[in-house]
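Batch manifest, entry 17 of 40.
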Amino acid sequence: MEIIYNPNLVSRLKGKYLFLDTNVFIGSLFVPELLGLIHAFKENGCELLTIPSVLFEFTRGTKTIPEYNRRVEAVKSICGNNVYPIERHLGEFNDFTVVLQHLKGEMDYTEFLLCASVYKFQTAKIITENHQHFPLDVLNREFLITVDNEKDIRNYAVYGFSLEKYNKAGEKILNSSR
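Output type: structure tokens
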């Protein structure tokens, strides 16, 4: 198994908030190298977080309390108690919500909330494998992390909010909706 990423990745994300998507937790269960990279982020001063809907997705399908608890503990082993309740702030994001719904109307709720998280904390990043779910109209794909396990190749990416892209996209959308 091999993991490939920019050698400056860890140092360039030093001290950042990193919101982890469901597939990062799934990958960390099966790819020790990915888990090692996640721990390198933490050791380099990154604050690893997730959101309640990611925790729900990651525990979905568990059939027993012990199985559910093992999944919750897997998240806690990475993020501690850093499950950020972004839903509390949705009233602050009306313009952002309209722009995102216009750009990506069929976006899943969890992906919307992750985008809202980096909108709220504009220096924060998202790490995900679901590239088609995150609109490059308002985000920059900053780094790729490739995991080659000889059966298949998995590509994770680090996304950051782009105020410039958002303002450009939002200008047309919001002016026509007022």
